[in-house]
Amino acid sequence: MTNYGAIPTSSHPSPPVDLEYISHVRHRIKSGLATRRPWRSMFDLESMSLPHGFFDAISRTKTNLVYFRANYAIAVLFMLFASLLYHPTSLLVLAILVVFWIFLYFLRDEPLVVFGHQVDDRTVMICLSVLTIGMLLFTHATGNILGSLLTALVLVMIHAAVRRSDNLYSDEEAAAVTEASGLTSYPSS
């Protein structure tokens, strides 16, 4: 490398490390995981009780599936991963598909736009689920995959029906309720 004047010249310029991109990815990971609810809240034993009837179970299930959807997706993917430990090809395919899940479902800051149409989270989740199941079925681990998915589905539905949904609210709703009830505390000066 030679320096004549103020303009450095080099025959092989080294690619700059894009720290802004790394920082953006780190921020997207944090904000993407923010949609996941705390596991402690999900498995709070005081919030577990048998539903009073069929319609109560349906209501709880609907509410919990929406509220804990990211947690349920992580749990199902983990159970699928655990069932494929003895199938390396299937595990590699699952690892690639998890990258798709991370970037297309968990880490998006803005809605996904395909061919000029906005795609909602539910559609993305359904498409990724079908793609994941389809690709894994091509790896000849059908028994393990179907068994783990059936087990995961049963466990998710049981949890969604047994977890009371009367104390679930978003952070904005909690702040509004707390502020309206006068439960906020201010430091004394």
From TrEMBL:
InterPro entries: Prenylated_rab_accept_PRA1
One of the GO biological process terms: vesicle-mediated transport
Membrane-crossing segments per the record: 66-85, 91-107, 145-162
Cellular localisation: Endomembrane system; Membrane
This protein's UniProt keywords: Membrane, Transmembrane, Transmembrane helix, Transport
Key word DNA-binding present: no
Family: Belongs to the PRA1 family.
Name listed for the protein in its UniProt record: PRA1 family protein
Organism: Raphanus sativus (Radish)
